[in-house]
TrEMBL record:
All residue ranges annotated as the RsdA/BaiN/AoA(So)-like Rossmann fold-like domain in the record: 5-404
Alphabetical UniProt keywords: FAD, Flavoprotein
Xref: SUPFAM superfamilies: FAD/NAD(P)-binding domain, HI0933 insert domain-like
Cofactor: FAD
Cited InterPro entries: BaiN-like, BaiN-like_dom_sf, FAD/NAD-bd_sf, RsdA/BaiN/AoA(So)-like_dom, RsdA/BaiN/AoA(So)_Rossmann
Record-given protein name: NAD(P)/FAD-dependent oxidoreductase
Source species: Lachnotalea glycerini
Ranges where the RsdA/BaiN/AoA(So)-like insert domain occurs: 189-350
């Protein structure tokens, strides 16, 4: 029988998965959690519905300084295996455009299922405990905490990142890893709202619309996405913003110029859009430009576009020249706004950066610095795009860490 004692630091998604996996392999497992409950961040995922994975998987959906690193872990515990395991635990799921949710659409359901398995496996959780550092003497690992020292054979660090600190994800694990000799790649917010220059954002606050969104870094397109954009009083939000935000944040941190380019009519080519507008202008020459545009754009956007084009709201369309129309359409199809900042870790869904994966085994997730120390979840320099990918990373890395830590 496996008599190993394993301590898991952190009772988030990755920590719980690693603990369950290790305990199923007959290891004696204890979880140390520095807040007063487990799975706090899990409860907020998917707007409280818990988008626990995605049916469409690709290594391109994960970002890491060591590009091939996520692939080695994800192939060991795939989204198919994830769904099978949750099904065996009694969780019924449904998918919407590839996004997988519990059938109840409640994140609490997923947490309850995991907690029941923790209890069944007799995994104890010690709450409100602060870990200072990890020491190793011979083969014994000593974990120093505010509640005394704990001894174990293996330890799995699954303390999360700095994103959403109100859930307990405060980045404290970085210091623990650093004391073990690990390099920490600068943590920065990812999947986060972007702050833009412009005095017009207050006027368009609350607008939601389908757009094509591109990011220009020092004049060159870096990434683009399409989806529902949300305009705020300070800039842009919504899924397409989150998908490109990692690149904007990193570029701003490096002192580069960042421009968001927004296509407010993404389903129409420029000439096709122009033809539709001109047809309306021919049919209704006495209408104002504002009246014509209301048929195409959100009403709050119309005066902004007209002002950007240097025209008057009430101008009659028969007086608009072809050149003026081209300027207007350029703004609608290619609206440029400078990204000057981004929201803090408080609003970020995940974090880029973390423990350098070049110092972690891409097969076992064991530290290459200190034997017997493993990593799981967002503490590592791996982050995914929106859509359940960050939770899939938690499940996959948690499984791999727990599986390998529990080996003799």
């Amino acid at each position: 029988m496996n008599s190993q004692k394993i301590i898991v630091l952190g009772a988030g998604a990755a920590g719980m998965m690693s603990a369950i996996t290790a305990a199923r392999n007959k290891s004696h497992v204890i979880i140390l959690e520095h807040t007063d409950r487990c799975g706090k961040k899990l409860l907020s995922t998917g707007n409280g519905r818990c988008n626990l994975t995605n049916l469409e998987q690709s290594e391109l959906f994960y970002r890491c300084s060591c590009k091939e690193f996520p692939r080695h872990i994800l192939k060991q515990f795939t989204q198919e295996q994830t769904l099978k395991q949750f099904q065996q635990l009694g969780l019924y799921t449904k998918s919407r455009n590839g996004y997988v949710y519990p059938y109840s659409e409640q994140a609490g359901t997923v947490l309850d299922i995991l907690k029941m398995e923790l209890e069944r496996l007799d995994i104890s959780i010690i709450y409100n405990i602060k870990v200072d550092k990890i020491c190793k003497t011979n083969k014994i690992i000593q974990i120093k905490t505010n509640m005394g020292d704990y001894l174990c054979d293996k330890v799995i660090i699954a303390t999360g990142s700095k994103a959403a600190p109100k859930t307990g994800s405060d980045g404290s694990g970085y210091e623990i890893a650093k004391k073990l000799g690990h390099r920490i790649i600068k943590p920065l917010p990812a999947l986060v709202q972007l702050r833009c220059a412009g005095d017009y954002f207050k006027a368009v606050t609350g607008v939601r619309c389908e757009v094509g969104l591109s990011l220009l870094i020092n004049g060159k397109e870096a990434i683009s996405d399409k989806g529902e954009l949300q305009l705020t009083d300070y800039g842009i939000s919504g899924i397409p913003t989150f998908q490109i935000s990692r690149y904007a944040v990193k570029a701003l941190d490096e002192g580069k110029k960042v421009i968001a380019q927004i296509d407010f009519m993404p389903d129409l080519e420029y000439e096709e859009f122009k033809e539709l507008i001109k047809r309306q202008m021919e049919w209704f020459p006495e209408k104002s430009l504002e009246q014509i545009l209301i048929g195409f754009l959100n009403k709050k956007l119309v005066p902004v576009m007209i002002k950007k084009a240097g025209l008057a709201n009430k101008i009659v369309v028969k007086k608009i020249t072809d050149k003026q129309l081209d300027v207007l359409l350029d703004w609608i199809k290619s609206f440029l706004t400078e990204v000057v900042s981004y929201n803090s870790f408080d609003q970020a869904q995940v974090c880029m950066g973390g423990v350098d994966t070049r110092e972690i085994s891409k097969e076992t997730l064991e530290s290459l610095r200190v034997a017997g120390v493993y990593f799981a979840g967002e503490i590592m320099d791996v982050d995914g795009i929106c859509g359940g990918y960050n939770l899939q990373w938690a499940w996959s890395s948690g499984y791999v860490a727990g599986q390998n830590a529990s080996k003799g």
